[in-house]
Amino acid sequence: MTRDDLLPIGDLARRTGLAVSAIRFYEEKGLLQAFRTAGNQRRFLRSDIRRLSFILIAQKLGLGLSEIEEQLGTLPQGRTPNQRDWQKISMAMRQAIDAKILLLTRTRNQLDQCIGCGCLSLKKCQLYNKEDKLAAAGTGPRLVITAN
What we know:
- The chain is mainly α.
- Helices cover 51% and strands 6% of the residues.
- It contains seven helices and three strands, in the order βααββααααα.
- The chain has a three-stranded antiparallel β-sheet.
- A hairpin with a 5-residue loop joins strand 2 (35-36) and strand 3.
- The longest helix is centred in the middle third of the chain and has 28 residues, at 83-110.
- The radius of gyration is 22 Å and the shape is elongated.
- It starts with 5 loop residues before the first strand and ends with a helix.
- The model has no long low-confidence stretch (mean pLDDT 86).
């Protein structure tokens, strides 16, 4: 590992758009590992830019920190993850991401119509859910959270 492979925490913050405090938080959680200089300053692998970018994207997708921790825990510490490392994470997360995409699509498509909540307040709900027949299928917004 060369000196060019390591970034000070301020440079990492500038490259990722994260606050230094957020990077320290992720470090405390074990999502990335700092190397220390002789003067006890933090230095991070250049590849930690990707690790932090992954965290930002996963959070935007609505994944919880525990899910993110679990996936990043499979990556090697102290070396740049390779394509195969990232592919393993991609395959592991694909099903969860696909389920979220399906839910978002269903919500977008149903939000201005009856979502099966049983309120019967919209005229369309009187057609789709007459007499609240969806109540027999369970609680909550049945047309959104269950497959049609």
